[in-house]
Amino acid sequence: AEQGGWHSVAPATIGGKPYLVGGGELGACPGAWPKLVDISDESKPVTAGEFRLAMNYPENCPERSATEKATGGIVGDPGTASLHFNDVDDPEDTRLGLFQFMWAGLRIADLRDPANPVEIGYFKPGDACGGHVRYVQETGHIWFSCAASGFYVIELQDNIAARDAAVN
Questions:
Q1: Fewer Cβ close by (within 10 Å): the C or N end of the chain?
Q2: What is the pTM of this model?
């Protein structure tokens, strides 16, 4: 059976096909990351792709700390790049994945090729970011928050936004 992740699953429609975007939550390195699951046949979901950062590969993980060992890897140390909420820009016509990777900040990925999601932007304020992300279609603003630094409203740089619009 396919496992697409269980935390903050977001419905998505990519190229007219239905998907679910979800991942695990938190954890020590390699942490958790979003998966894109094709649910065209709901009785046979298929993982179409994944979006990982370099730290989300076991070969890039440092030795586990005493805290990480004591919690069985459920709690990661500060600095761990592990998913904590994921969203999409538009569930009916999905282009962007909006992924809170805790200490690695908000990561924005182009999901139009589900087998090969590509990071197109990020915002990393230096503290842990986690929670739902809102994309405001009318303005292109992205709303999110981080634990210590607070609430942010950001937008993609003009060259990225223009490239995104040109491909649509």
A1: N
A2: 0.89
